[in-house]
Design brief:
The protein is mostly helical and 173 residues long. It has a single domain, classed as Glutathione S-transferase Yfyf (Class Pi), Chain A, domain 2, CATH 1.20.1050.10. It has seven helices and three strands, in the order αβββαααααα. It has a three-stranded antiparallel beta sheet, covered by helices on one side. Helix 3 runs parallel beside helix 5. The radius of gyration is 17 Å and the shape is globular. It holds the Pfam family Arc1p_N_like.
Length: 173
């Protein structure tokens, strides 16, 4: 999965010469053989490298606080989301839903690399959610829909249909 993410990120960033990646280990950790030194290993390491190569540093955060938030969510992606089991999915969605309740993007009001990689990581989960489940996680669904329509991000992924109005009222009849 990580290899197509890196390829999609390269295209989004407008990098002209695509890199050749390999993988290592059971978990297929992406590796980039660097001409100038040792290989670069890991999705986050490679994604940050590509952002710097494209001179798009704003995607890493525009302040010290935002850079820390971006790094936190990138870490979350590889430690929690990449290794999540079916049992963990609801907890991840609940936590993310709570976090996003007053935010447009993961780093407050700035679109960053964290939004891109979390979108790619959570897309298979969102695809499998029923409409009623999407409603339970309305902030995640709103954020996801916004990111999937961000120019150049979705690439080859099929769009996920998200209803913009709630089916059920919150009142009990």
């Amino acid at each position: 999965m990580a290899l197509w993410e890196l390829s999609s990120l390269e295209k989004y960033l407008g990098l002209k010469k695509p890199n050749k990646y390999s993988t290592q280990g059971d978990k297929k950790v992406p590796v980039l053989q660097n001409n100038n030194g040792p290989p670069l290993v890991g999705l986050v390491t490679l994604a940050c490298h590509l952002v710097k190569e494209a001179k798009r540093l704003e995607l890493l955060g525009d302040s010290a606080e935002n850079r820390a938030v971006v790094q936190q969510w990138l870490e979350y992606r590889v430690t929690k989301l990449n290794n999540c089991t079916k049992d963990n999915i609801k907890t991840i969605l609940k936590d993310l839903n709570l976090y996003l309740q007053d935010k447009v993007y993961l780093a407050e009001n700035q679109f960053t690399l964290a939004d891109i990689l979390l979108y790619y990581g959570i897309q298979p989960i969102i695809v499998d959610l029923a409409i009623q489940e999407q409603e339970q996680y309305v902030n995640v669904t709103r954020w996801f829909d916004h990111i999937q329509h961000y120019p150049g991000i979705r690439r080859h992924l099929s769009p996920v249909v998200v209803l913009r109005n709630r089916i059920y009222s919150s009142r009990h009849h």
